[in-house]
Amino acid sequence: MDIKQLDKTYVLPTYARADVEFVRGKNATLFDNTGKKYIDFTSGIGVVSVGHANERVTRALCEQLSNITHISNLYHIGPQALAAQKVVEASGYDMQCFFANSGAEANEGAIKIARKHGERDGAIKRYKIITLNHSFHGRTITTVKATGQADMHNYFGPFPDGFVYADGIDAIESLLDDHTAGVMIELIQGEGGVEPQDKEKVQALEKFLKAKNIPLIIDEVQTGAYRVGEFTASQTYGISPEIITLAKGVGGGVPVGVVMTSLKGVFSAGDHGSTFGGNFLSTRAICEVVDILNEKKRDGSLELTALYFNNALEKFYKKHTDLFTKKVGFGMMYGLRAKDGDTLANVIKSAREHGVMVLKAGRNTLRFLPPLTITEEEIDEGFNALESAVSKL
Ligand code: PLP
Question: Which ligand 1 atom is at minimum distance from the Cα of 140?
Answer without folding.
Answer: 16
